[in-house]
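Q: What structure does this chain adopt?
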Amino acid sequence: MFLLDARYVPENSTITRWLKDGRGCRPVREVYYPRIYVGGRPELLPLIASLPGAKDAGFDEKCTWLGRAPEKVISLRVKSGLIYDIASMLEARGCSLYNIDLDPVRQYLLEHNLFPAARLRGDVLDDEQYALDYEIPELVSTELSVIPDRDHGIITMDDPIGRITLGDTFIERDDEARMVNELNCLVAHIDPDLIFTERGDSFELPYLHHRASLHGIELQLGREKDILPECGGKSYFSYGRILYKPRGYLLSGRLHLDRSCFLFREGGLPGLIDLSRITGIPMQELSRLSPGSAVTALQVNQALRDGVLVPWKRNLAEYWKTAEELLIADRGALVIEPKVGLHEDVFEIDFASLFPNIMVKHNISPETVLCPCCPDSKKRVPFTHYNICQQQTGLIPRVLRPLIERRMAYKERVKGCPSRAQEYEMKQN
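A:
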């Protein structure tokens, strides 16, 4: 039995674990309230415990910043829909808030030592999260695509459906309502675990839901009722370009994977499963994140295991620098221009994971640079001469070292196991 997915419904504070057992997949539900922490005002415990939506309030010992000693904070579980209301009210009273933005599903999985695609024996974990060799369930997958009935011009949501393709089956009828109903029946009959699309988030799923709603039909592509995104996508500026990111269309009890998403495009299904296991982020959500967000998740996971809380609205200013210090510290990279001409015996050197390796080797982390415990440290940042801690290994190196070792192990397996070279190449990406 394997954990295929986990979803949280804030309206009834319920976690649903979808367990893949042989050919079938069944839901297991549990009431769950996320935990937040309040610091700075211990005398407010009686007030906090009496707030609407507050559950199980009490004191706990946690670190509120990397490298600091544990201190007394208020711990409470809260109904998910009221977290930000309670946090804003307590912030106005001068309290420090922690773990406010953590996803309830990730909190639940961390508290129960679970992770996506984990093998279970009953309710007991029978798997190793960072294992290189692991069993994955046999997943039933299918492809979904739709073509509007328009010969030329720009396609819009107002164009009727021309053809729907699900796997090897084509649905083509004059009656659009019957086409949508047939799609519902076909998905239920095939009962796939994975539905792949080429542009499902940006067009296919919102288009199908819109066309179904015009006929008063409820389109259900998941194993339970589809929960549509509450808001649209967002535009952002990156490297001189304005880009648009559509809202993800996630399914219940079934995984919708859009091939246009970066992580899935680079690593395929093997790479996505591997990254989902070690980050603890369900595959649907993970496929729509950036690699940086995945690494951040690993850092947060490690911090929580260490008893360190995640601040809300953290705004950490840099240390004060003089103009000369700023000039030295903010120097750019040295780029050596090549000699123009025709050259022979040219060699290329590529540093594997250059910056992560530097951070691991030299113990670079927020709490280790300019640490108060090692002012006379022999380890120094070049030019700025900042001291680096010699007594403890920082959070960042502890997170990055297993990632680097994992990637190098997969690279070795690409060479040593040709029959599975493609799989290992996807995982190391």
